[in-house]
Amino acid sequence: MHLTIIVGSSRPCGVSARVVALVRRHLGDEIGVDDIWLKNYRIEYCDADNACSDQDCAIQDDVKQLVARLDRADAVLYLPVMHAYGTNSRFQAFLERVGYGFMRPRQRPLSDKLAAIAVVGRRYGHTAVFSQVVLNVLLNKMILVGSGFPACFQTHLAHDPEAEQALCETLDRLCEHHRRLNSIGAANRRPEKGHQSMHFHNG
């Protein structure tokens, strides 16, 4: 499985970086992890001109490059940061572009990819941000995977064992679902044992 993490933080050494390190440590070397830090990309705000209903978005920025990286992933972990009880502005711009305008004329290329969410913030508002990203995941027709409780990391804590457990269980479920989907796909591609093609002749 190849996992891509979308990181909303602008702090290279903050809690989000610790979460990315946790993901890599938990998954080990067998799972490829690609972390995309949105701070390194130019993401313009959606202009809501609705022209993307039937043609590609005309805004020239790095969103096309970001979507190409996401398209190569088997699973995506959204890692937004909470500002003012909502997601930070850069992540909000990303959600608007990728959820609303950019994907629509492209027939939702992230459809059926596995997705999970973890939220970083001081306190309060975590579940509101979590719910917003859930709606974006569903809009892009992805498959949402969770562990029963949202992984919400509180930045005022030196360690957040509850959030770490929720995230690790979610990562395990991502791997499990990826294996199941692959086994189903392999079974569908494999011809049944002893099956022979049937030919009908007029007689």
From TrEMBL:
**Keyword Flavoprotein among UniProt keywords:** yes
* Pfam families assigned: FMN_red
* Flavoprotein keyword on record: yes
Print the keywords alphabetically: Flavoprotein, FMN
Concerning InterPro entries, the annotation shows: Flavoprotein-like_sf (IPR029039), FMN_Rdtase-like_dom (IPR005025), ISF_SsuE-like (IPR051796)
Q: Which residues form a coiled coil?
A: none
Domain NADPH-dependent FMN reductase-like span(s) in chain numbering: 1-149
Which PANTHER family does the UniProt record give?
A: NAD(P)H-DEPENDENT FMN-CONTAINING OXIDOREDUCTASE YWQN-RELATED
Its name, as the record gives it, is: Flavodoxin family protein
Species name: Pseudomonas petrae
